[in-house]
Amino acid sequence: MMLNVNITNDALNYSSNRTRPAQTRYKPSRQSFTLDIGFNLHDSIGDLGAGDIIDNPDPVDRYQPFSKAAYQYQLNKTSSIEVQVAPNETRRNGLVKQNFTLDGHTYNEGNKDNEGDDVIIALRQWSAGASYLKDYTVSDQITLTGGIGLYAYYVELEADL
User: Fold this and answer.
1) Rounded distance between C-alpha atoms, residue 89 and residue 40, angstroms
2) pLDDT at 1
Protein backbone atom coordinates (compact mmCIF):
# COMPACT_ATOMS: atom_id res chain seq x y z
CA MET A 1 0.00 0.00 0.00
CA MET A 2 1.38 3.40 -0.91
CA LEU A 3 -0.16 6.79 -0.20
CA ASN A 4 0.81 9.90 -2.13
CA VAL A 5 -0.47 13.42 -1.47
CA ASN A 6 -0.14 16.22 -4.01
CA ILE A 7 -1.09 19.82 -3.26
CA THR A 8 -1.48 22.20 -6.19
CA ASN A 9 -1.16 25.97 -6.11
CA ASP A 10 -4.97 26.23 -6.33
CA ALA A 11 -5.21 24.85 -2.80
CA LEU A 12 -3.12 27.73 -1.55
CA ASN A 13 -5.18 30.47 -3.20
CA TYR A 14 -7.44 32.07 -0.64
CA SER A 15 -9.32 35.31 -0.14
CA SER A 16 -7.89 37.53 2.54
CA ASN A 17 -6.95 41.13 3.22
CA ARG A 18 -3.37 40.03 3.80
CA THR A 19 -0.81 40.54 1.08
CA ARG A 20 1.56 37.86 0.02
CA PRO A 21 5.27 38.44 -0.40
CA ALA A 22 6.67 38.16 -3.89
CA GLN A 23 7.18 34.52 -4.80
CA THR A 24 10.61 33.26 -5.63
CA ARG A 25 10.76 30.90 -8.58
CA TYR A 26 13.26 28.11 -8.43
CA LYS A 27 14.79 26.26 -11.32
CA PRO A 28 13.47 22.69 -11.50
CA SER A 29 15.91 20.23 -9.99
CA ARG A 30 17.58 17.70 -12.27
CA GLN A 31 17.77 15.22 -9.40
CA SER A 32 15.18 13.48 -7.26
CA PHE A 33 15.30 10.93 -4.47
CA THR A 34 12.36 8.74 -3.46
CA LEU A 35 12.11 6.52 -0.39
CA ASP A 36 9.10 4.20 -0.31
CA ILE A 37 8.39 2.48 2.99
CA GLY A 38 5.31 0.34 3.39
CA PHE A 39 3.98 -3.05 4.31
CA ASN A 40 2.14 -5.95 2.79
CA LEU A 41 -0.15 -8.61 4.18
CA HIS A 42 0.72 -11.33 1.66
CA ASP A 43 2.63 -14.30 3.10
CA SER A 44 5.29 -14.86 0.44
CA ILE A 45 7.21 -17.36 2.58
CA GLY A 46 4.00 -19.32 3.09
CA ASP A 47 3.74 -19.66 -0.71
CA LEU A 48 7.04 -21.56 -0.58
CA GLY A 49 5.55 -24.16 1.79
CA ALA A 50 6.83 -22.92 5.16
CA GLY A 51 3.46 -23.80 6.73
CA ASP A 52 4.04 -27.44 5.77
CA ILE A 53 7.28 -27.77 7.75
CA ILE A 54 6.68 -25.60 10.83
CA ASP A 55 3.60 -25.38 13.00
CA ASN A 56 3.17 -21.60 13.03
CA PRO A 57 0.67 -20.62 10.32
CA ASP A 58 1.48 -16.89 10.43
CA PRO A 59 4.53 -14.76 9.60
CA VAL A 60 6.50 -13.17 12.47
CA ASP A 61 5.19 -9.73 11.45
CA ARG A 62 1.55 -9.41 10.43
CA TYR A 63 2.43 -6.25 8.55
CA GLN A 64 5.54 -7.29 6.65
CA PRO A 65 7.68 -4.24 5.91
CA PHE A 66 9.14 -3.45 2.53
CA SER A 67 11.14 -0.56 1.19
CA LYS A 68 12.58 0.90 -1.98
CA ALA A 69 15.02 3.75 -2.54
CA ALA A 70 15.28 5.39 -5.97
CA TYR A 71 17.53 8.16 -7.30
CA GLN A 72 16.66 9.81 -10.63
CA TYR A 73 18.83 12.18 -12.68
CA GLN A 74 17.23 14.19 -15.51
CA LEU A 75 19.51 14.12 -18.57
CA ASN A 76 17.36 16.55 -20.58
CA LYS A 77 13.68 17.53 -20.86
CA THR A 78 12.56 14.09 -22.03
CA SER A 79 15.02 11.51 -20.68
CA SER A 80 16.46 10.43 -17.35
CA ILE A 81 18.39 7.70 -15.58
CA GLU A 82 17.04 6.01 -12.45
CA VAL A 83 18.84 3.77 -9.92
CA GLN A 84 16.84 1.65 -7.45
CA VAL A 85 17.55 -0.57 -4.44
CA ALA A 86 14.83 -2.63 -2.71
CA PRO A 87 15.83 -4.78 0.31
CA ASN A 88 12.97 -6.90 1.67
CA GLU A 89 12.64 -9.84 4.07
CA THR A 90 9.80 -12.05 5.34
CA ARG A 91 10.19 -14.17 8.49
CA ARG A 92 8.28 -17.00 10.13
CA ASN A 93 9.07 -18.96 13.30
CA GLY A 94 7.73 -22.06 15.04
CA LEU A 95 8.35 -25.69 15.90
CA VAL A 96 9.45 -28.08 13.16
CA LYS A 97 6.66 -30.51 12.28
CA GLN A 98 8.43 -32.20 9.34
CA ASN A 99 12.17 -32.89 9.10
CA PHE A 100 13.97 -30.72 6.55
CA THR A 101 17.54 -29.92 5.54
CA LEU A 102 18.73 -26.48 4.47
CA ASP A 103 22.36 -25.52 3.76
CA GLY A 104 23.60 -28.86 5.12
CA HIS A 105 21.85 -28.58 8.48
CA THR A 106 18.96 -30.88 9.37
CA TYR A 107 16.09 -29.53 11.46
CA ASN A 108 14.17 -32.23 13.34
CA GLU A 109 10.47 -32.61 13.98
CA GLY A 110 9.13 -33.33 17.40
CA ASN A 111 8.07 -36.69 18.78
CA LYS A 112 6.42 -37.91 21.98
CA ASP A 113 9.58 -37.13 24.01
CA ASN A 114 10.37 -33.64 22.70
CA GLU A 115 8.68 -30.79 20.83
CA GLY A 116 11.17 -30.55 17.97
CA ASP A 117 13.48 -27.75 16.95
CA ASP A 118 12.27 -24.17 17.39
CA VAL A 119 13.33 -22.41 14.18
CA ILE A 120 13.06 -19.10 12.43
CA ILE A 121 12.90 -19.07 8.63
CA ALA A 122 13.74 -15.94 6.67
CA LEU A 123 13.19 -15.22 2.97
CA ARG A 124 15.32 -12.36 1.69
CA GLN A 125 14.34 -10.70 -1.59
CA TRP A 126 16.72 -7.92 -2.63
CA SER A 127 16.91 -6.13 -5.95
CA ALA A 128 19.15 -3.41 -7.36
CA GLY A 129 19.32 -1.93 -10.81
CA ALA A 130 19.16 1.01 -13.16
CA SER A 131 16.90 2.20 -15.99
CA TYR A 132 17.02 4.67 -18.84
CA LEU A 133 13.62 6.40 -19.11
CA LYS A 134 12.18 8.44 -21.99
CA ASP A 135 9.06 10.65 -21.85
CA TYR A 136 6.65 10.80 -24.80
CA THR A 137 4.17 13.67 -24.84
CA VAL A 138 0.77 12.54 -26.11
CA SER A 139 -1.01 15.82 -25.37
CA ASP A 140 -0.65 18.82 -23.08
CA GLN A 141 -2.08 16.77 -20.22
CA ILE A 142 -0.76 13.26 -20.95
CA THR A 143 2.85 12.11 -20.96
CA LEU A 144 3.85 8.45 -21.28
CA THR A 145 7.16 7.18 -19.93
CA GLY A 146 8.94 4.10 -21.25
CA GLY A 147 12.43 2.78 -20.93
CA ILE A 148 14.89 -0.04 -20.60
CA GLY A 149 16.74 -1.26 -17.54
CA LEU A 150 18.95 -3.90 -16.01
CA TYR A 151 18.29 -5.31 -12.54
CA ALA A 152 19.92 -7.94 -10.33
CA TYR A 153 17.96 -10.00 -7.81
CA TYR A 154 19.21 -11.77 -4.70
CA VAL A 155 16.88 -14.34 -3.15
CA GLU A 156 17.91 -16.38 -0.10
CA LEU A 157 16.07 -18.78 2.18
CA GLU A 158 17.65 -19.15 5.61
CA ALA A 159 16.74 -21.14 8.73
CA ASP A 160 18.20 -20.75 12.20
CA LEU A 161 17.56 -22.24 15.63
Assistant:
1) 11
2) 45
Instruction: Note the maximum CA span of the chain.
Output: 83
67 within 8 A of 28, measured Cβ to Cβ: no
pTM score > 0.85 for this model?
A: no
**How many CB atoms are located within 10 Å of the residue 122 CB?**
16
63: Cα separation from own chain's centroid: 13
CA dist., res. 130 & res. 32, Å (int): 14
* Cα 52 to Cα 134: distance, rounded to the nearest angstrom: 46
Instruction: Give the separation between CA 150 and CA 83, rounded to whole angstroms.
Output: 10
Averaged pLDDT, 70-84:
94
